[in-house]
Protein: Phytoene synthase
Amino acid sequence: MQDRTQLVAHARRTIARGSKSFAAASMLFDRVTRERVWLLYAWCRAADDLADAQDMGGDLGDQSEAEARLATIRERTALALAGQPTGDASFDGLGVVAAECGLTQAMCDDVIAGFAMDAADWRPRDRDDMLQYCYHVAGAVGVMMAKVMGVPDDDGDTLASDTLDRACDLGIAFQLGNIVRDLWEDDAAGRCYLPVEWLVEADIPPGQHMKPIYREPLVAMVQQACLLARTYEASARIGAARLPFRSRWAILSATGIYGAIARKVEDAGEHGWDHRAFTSRFEKLGHVAGGLRASMAPPPEGCAEQAKGRPLTRLGFAERAREKGYAA
Structure:
């Protein structure tokens, strides 16, 4: 197994290839936190790629062996958490950051449950199902990232518990943005993360939502999803204010970058999928500057009130997961 320095170098290359937006924001963390963030990101990226038979989030590969790939993710993750070599630097890196920051099997299982939902060709029935998926593939990652940034366990600590809730909320906001941005790519891969109830109410037949004739109702659904994203983002800004300065700056910069992508899709209306929305290097620098300003001020007025509109929070997602049998 490679040593920590080699694993960090591998993780840095991974985030540089896998997410230019998060790679840019990650440079704002202090060195120790930055390296840990990279290590956690590399596991998330490797597991996601393995689950979808893809490379760095690219086109989906052959999905016929999804359950076998899911079993590999479980096996390598368990080995990593036990401090054993896995044969994969991204999973070995998870073992390092888990030991340093107290990441647990249960935390990893919450994320892997999202891959299991895709492996089962799962579709969200309603809004809460859509948010449940966002929780597993991104909200649970937000909780792990908060632990990496030094947020303590929530056992008996009300403030820590609330901060972890809001870290989860940021992941959900990011994933809602991903859903609206990637509607075209997901449709090409035979996937759709918009609630079935929304499609039925709009009289859109299954698998037809990207047809030009349905663009008007599709735009209305994107607006609903973006409104939800802003609600969760408002909550996340309250939690970010409690982080150390460098972490606060990095997270608020990432919030600006990812939020801008969702706003571009929303603002483009029926043309939101003419090309894949992204932020330019110049725009990223603007959001880094905006993140710096935001990190030196209290959360914007109205965040607390807006955050009350969240339909579900971390504990609610955990309860739904138990009730509905969503498990890694």
